[in-house]
Structures are given as C-alpha cells and as structure tokens.
C-alpha cells in the first residue's frame, strides 16, 4: 500500500481503478516541416483520417450522453470535419508544413475568425481549439485531451480540472475526483461537491499512478491509498451502506433545540434551481448570475437577462432567492465587461468595481432583475460582490432603490468589509459571506494553487474571526441585520456547526450537501455550536481547529463525513 495525503473537499469513501486525465497537448514547434520521406499527399491523407477519427469518436460519445454534455459533443464533432479547418491545414501541408503544425495554425486562424464574428459563431471558437488538439493527439497516437472515455466506473485523477473539462463528466462513471494540484476552493472542489462525488485535492504524486491502479479514496480525511487492504474495503462498504441515510432532507435546517438555520442552495441558472428545489432547498442563498452569460461576447439585453433570472425565481415561489450581481473578473471573465490584460485580476476590476470602468451594465442588470421579480412570486434579495467600503454599499443600495429593488445587500469577501461590517450594514439590508474569496484575500493565497491549499481553508482561525466580526457588526446598536454564508465553507457539515455557533443566520451550499449539513446540525444544540465555535477560534492553526471540532462531533465518522 502507498498513501497519498491531500486535502479532502467532498466526503465519501470509495474504491475504484485509476484513469488518468490525459496531459494537455503541447503545441507543435513553429515552422515544423514534413518528416523526411513523407509526401504532402501522405500527410494530407493522414490529416483527413485523423479528422474523421476524431469526428467518429465524438459522435459515439454523444450518442451515450445527455443534456448539455450531448450538445457540446455533437457541436465539437461537427467542427472536427469543418471544411475551412481541414482545407486551411491541407494548404499549409502542400507548402511543406507538418500535418500537426498545419492543423494547429489552421485552427488558430479559424478560431480567431469565429471570435471576431461574435455571437453564436464566437461561442464555437473554443470548439475549434478543442478539435485541433484532438486531431494533433490522433496524429501523434497519444490520448486525446478531456475526460477519458470508459465503459466501466473509475476514479478520475488529474493535475487539476478546468470548468470546460467537466462538460462530459458522467457521475455514473466517475466514482471520485482526485487531483495533484488545486486547493479546497478550486474548480475541482466546487464541481465535486455539486455532483456529490468524493474528492481529494492537492495530493502530490497521484498524477504518477498508472492507469488501472486500484485505490481507496477518503474524501473526508483527504487521503488516497493504493492497493487497499480489507479494512479499507470494509470502510468503503460501510460508507455505501450509510450514504442512503443522507439521501433525504426534511426541508428544515435546525439545531437539536429547535434553533432554525435555513439551508439554501447555490445555483447558476434555472436547471440548477429546479434540481435544488427537488432536493429540498429552503430557497437560494447565491444565484451566480454571471454563469448565465459566461459564453457571451456581448451584453445580453434586459429582456434576455430577465428571462434567465425568472427561470430561477419560478423554482422557488414564495421563498427567498438571493441574487448576486455580475461577479465578472479574475477566473470568470466576461468579454463585454472585463479587461483580460489586467496584471492581477483577482485584485483588479471585478464584481461591483466593473461599474467604475463600464458604467451602465449594472444599472441594466438591476432593471432586468426588477422586471423578473414583477413577473414572479419569489422573495428577491440582491447583493453586490466585492464591496469594500460603506460608501460603496450606500451607492449600491441607492442604485437598487432607483431600480425598484427593495432588499439590497452586499457580499463580504474583502477583509475590509468584515472589519467595517457595522458601517456597511447601516447602508444595506443584509450581508452574505463569500468564504472562498474571503479566505483567499485574508490569507493572501490564490485559491487555485495546490501548494497553498493548507493556507486556503476557511478553517483558518483568522477567517473565522472575520466571520465573527461581521456578525458582531450586524448586531450593533440593536439593529440586527441577517448575515448568511454562501461560500463553500457552508457545505462542510462540521464547519456549518461552527458558523452557526458564530451567529450566522443562513447557510447556502451546493444542493447535494443539504442533507449532510442538516443531519449534523440536528445533533447539536445552539449552545453546543457556540462552544465549538469558541473552540475553533482558540486553535493555533486551521488543522487543529478542524481536528478539535471534528473530535467533538462523532456523528461525522458515523456518517462517513
């Protein structure tokens, strides 16, 4: 047996065989010529054969896919045989260029042309770059990029996963996600929680495990073990038996003594909202509106936006839906709103700040939200991301009032907002803690970097103190304002207890985490949660804070959490 310690980001204990994510395809050298003895006709024939093979493989996968994944695969398959792409490459081959370099350059030209056309055609630009990489892989005889195809379930192992990698990820085939890089707030972690898959990140060395290696993955403990023994097999079997206990959520989040803690869902659009409602979410604590428009090169109209927002509102009639205005920038660029050349986008013009450089977009979004609210029965609350000062909060509240929005709020993800919460909450009706970014900024640790994973955890006592300060600020002068948590910290059942003890009023998370959080919350009283919060705050490190709290919550081990 060999053990690979990492950071557990989504609970579960499973055993499966490893399938490694293929390495990214490297660019063929500039100016690469045909190999000696290879004619242009032979190279062109090989190019067309590779194009056909990629087309056929993608079509076959599309036949077994559903929903968005099926649409992505079908569109990409068509692009693999695009006449302009193949003819452009053939012309370069005729001039003596290698087939690999020719398809690479032709792909760049076609992608740039589609991007310049804008609209739907611009959305296909990324498909071209995916296809060219697949054709180069076929010509080289190496695995194609993306989620590997498999007829049997497997444990997916990678350096890290990008959002685009997940279009064809089938949770019925992938047993667990394991990465050598990434952190607890990385895309991989968020994806795993949303799909309910056990996951471990920042496990150095796992990307060297050979395909077919049998491994035991413990997503709560954050460990991967090759060639598991009988005790680990028994642990996996026990998890499978108890997982059914977490299948249902009663629809009410509360502590053992009846203190209500509404459990809400984080969603990115109408389909997410419908799924969250079916899983018992008591409302929406974070509607990430930018997810509706990430592939847009141009600003959507007020009517288009209103339709997208209404699809979420309609899933929760009579219930609270907290909408975050466009959080564009950093890892979520929007061409019509953000500057891709910023040297440090995480600290740049993102979120609310985009109104400084591109005025009007936020006003039109607020207009669309108000329009959608009039057409629905949801209780709509609206908050701005990246608020740093009380002055910004007051201006945002004024913009909401002008648009006819009654409940304005702010995201607390910049440390200055936590430190001045009392002043900020005089200006707005509520606050929601975005623990992903709050942790990143408080610890000066990029949340995507595996080597900084131990810093980038909301269990850091410094981050918990900022949460506590925000709650204290919300209660100043007896004018209590609700403070929720919508970052991924809320999905950790042990940390959810601590947050409740710190005075957080609502918890919002990926809908698949609702049942687990509810199951653990109902085993403690509010007073016990407060004591656990004090315990975590007194810890000298994040590791000890987590360990000390978990030791007091035996139900976590009983449920495999």
TrEMBL record:
<keyword id="KW-0418">Kinase</keyword>
<keyword id="KW-0598">Phosphotransferase system</keyword>
<keyword id="KW-0808">Transferase</keyword>
<feature type="domain" description="PEP-utilising enzyme mobile">
    <location>
        <begin position="154"/>
        <end position="222"/>
    </location>
</feature>
<dbReference type="InterPro" id="IPR040442">
    <property type="entry name" value="Pyrv_kinase-like_dom_sf"/>
</dbReference>
<keyword id="KW-0963">Cytoplasm</keyword>
<dbReference type="Pfam" id="PF00391">
    <property type="entry name" value="PEP-utilizers"/>
</dbReference>
<comment type="similarity">
    <text>Belongs to the PEP-utilizing enzyme family.</text>
</comment>
<keyword id="KW-0479">Metal-binding</keyword>
<keyword id="KW-0762">Sugar transport</keyword>
<dbReference type="InterPro" id="IPR036637">
    <property type="entry name" value="Phosphohistidine_dom_sf"/>
</dbReference>
<dbReference type="Pfam" id="PF02896">
    <property type="entry name" value="PEP-utilizers_C"/>
</dbReference>
<dbReference type="InterPro" id="IPR006318">
    <property type="entry name" value="PTS_EI-like"/>
</dbReference>
<dbReference type="InterPro" id="IPR015813">
    <property type="entry name" value="Pyrv/PenolPyrv_kinase-like_dom"/>
</dbReference>
<dbReference type="InterPro" id="IPR008279">
    <property type="entry name" value="PEP-util_enz_mobile_dom"/>
</dbReference>
<dbReference type="InterPro" id="IPR050499">
    <property type="entry name" value="PEP-utilizing_PTS_enzyme"/>
</dbReference>
<dbReference type="InterPro" id="IPR008731">
    <property type="entry name" value="PTS_EIN"/>
</dbReference>
<feature type="domain" description="PEP-utilising enzyme C-terminal">
    <location>
        <begin position="254"/>
        <end position="524"/>
    </location>
</feature>
<dbReference type="InterPro" id="IPR024692">
    <property type="entry name" value="PTS_EI"/>
</dbReference>
<dbReference type="InterPro" id="IPR000121">
    <property type="entry name" value="PEP_util_C"/>
</dbReference>
<dbReference type="Pfam" id="PF05524">
    <property type="entry name" value="PEP-utilisers_N"/>
</dbReference>
<comment type="function">
    <text>General (non sugar-specific) component of the phosphoenolpyruvate-dependent sugar phosphotransferase system (sugar PTS). This major carbohydrate active-transport system catalyzes the phosphorylation of incoming sugar substrates concomitantly with their translocation across the cell membrane. Enzyme I transfers the phosphoryl group from phosphoenolpyruvate (PEP) to the phosphoryl carrier protein (HPr).</text>
</comment>
<keyword id="KW-0460">Magnesium</keyword>
<protein>
    <recommendedName>
        <fullName>Phosphoenolpyruvate-protein phosphotransferase</fullName>
        <ecNumber>2.7.3.9</ecNumber>
    </recommendedName>
</protein>
<keyword id="KW-0813">Transport</keyword>
<feature type="domain" description="Phosphotransferase system enzyme I N-terminal">
    <location>
        <begin position="6"/>
        <end position="124"/>
    </location>
</feature>
<dbReference type="InterPro" id="IPR036618">
    <property type="entry name" value="PtsI_HPr-bd_sf"/>
</dbReference>
């Amino acid at each position: 047996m060999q053990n690979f310690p990492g950071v557990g980001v989504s609970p579960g204990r499973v055993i499966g065989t490893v399938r490694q994510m293929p390495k990214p395809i490297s660019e063929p050298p500039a100016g690469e010529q045909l190999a000696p003895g290879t004619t242009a006709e032979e190279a062109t024939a090989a190019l067309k054969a590779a194009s056909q093979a990629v087309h056929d493989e993608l079509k076959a996968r599309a036949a077994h896919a559903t929903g968005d994944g099926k649409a992505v695969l079908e569109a990409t398959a068509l692009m693999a045989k695009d006449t302009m792409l193949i003819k452009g490459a053939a012309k370069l081959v005729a001039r003596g260029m290698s087939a690999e370099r020719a398809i690479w350059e032709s792909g760049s030209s076609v992608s740039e042309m589609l991007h310049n056309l804008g609209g739907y055609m611009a959305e296909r630009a990324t498909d071209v770059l995916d296809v060219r990489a697949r054709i180069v892989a076929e010509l080289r005889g190496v695995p194609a990029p993306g989620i590997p195809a498999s007829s049997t379930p497997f444990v997916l192992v990678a350096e890290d996963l990008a959002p685009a990698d997940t279009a064809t990820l089938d949770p019925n085939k992938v047993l667990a996600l394991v990465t050598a890089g990434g952190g607890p707030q990385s895309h991989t972690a968020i994806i795993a929680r949303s799909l309910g898959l056990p996951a471990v990140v920042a496990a150095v060395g796992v990307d060297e495990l050979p395909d077919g290696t049998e491994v035991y993955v413990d997503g709560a403990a954050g460990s991967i073990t090759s060639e598991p023994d009988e005790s680990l097999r028994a642990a996996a079997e026990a998890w499978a038996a108890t997982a059914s206990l977490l299948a249902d959520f009663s629809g009410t989040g509360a502590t053992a003594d009846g203190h209500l803690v509404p459990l809400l869902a984080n969603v990115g659009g109408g389909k997410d909202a419908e799924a969250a409602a079916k899983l018992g979410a008591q409302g929406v604590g974070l509607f990430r509106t930018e997810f509706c428009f990430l592939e847009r090169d141009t600003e959507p109209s007020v009517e288009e936006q209103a339709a997208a927002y209404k699809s979420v509102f309609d899933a929760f009639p009579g219930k609270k839906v907290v909408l975050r205005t466009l959080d564009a920038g950093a890892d979520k660029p929007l061409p019509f709103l953000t500057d891709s050349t910023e040297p440090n986008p995480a600290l740049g013009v993102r979120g609310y700040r985009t109104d400084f450089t591109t005025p009007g977009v936020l006003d039109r979004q607020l207009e669309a939200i108000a329009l959608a609210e009039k057409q629905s029965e949801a209780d709509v609350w609206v908050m701005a991301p990246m608020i740093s000062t009380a002055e910004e909060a007051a201006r945002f509240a004024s913009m909401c009032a002008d648009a006819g929005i009654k409940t304005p709020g702010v995201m607390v993800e910049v440390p200055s907002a936590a430190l001045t919460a009392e002043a900020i909450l005089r200006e707005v009706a509520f606050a929601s803690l975005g623990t992903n970014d709050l942790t990143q900024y408080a610890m000066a640790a990029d949340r995507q970097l595996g080597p900084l994973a131990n810093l980038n955890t909301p269990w850091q006592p410094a981050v918990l103190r900022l949460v506590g300060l925000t709650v204290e600020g919300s209660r100043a002068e007896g004018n209590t304002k609700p403070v929720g948590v919508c970052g991924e910290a809320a999905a950790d059942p042990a940390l959810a207890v601590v947050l409740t003890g710190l005075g957080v009023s609502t918890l919002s998370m990926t809908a698949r985490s609702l049942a687990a959080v509810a199951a653990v919350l109902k085993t403690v009283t509010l007073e016990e949660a407060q004591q656990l919060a004090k315990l975590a705050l007194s810890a000298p490190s994040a590791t000890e804070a987590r360990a000390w709290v978990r030791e007091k919550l035996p139900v976590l081990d009983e449920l495999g959490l």
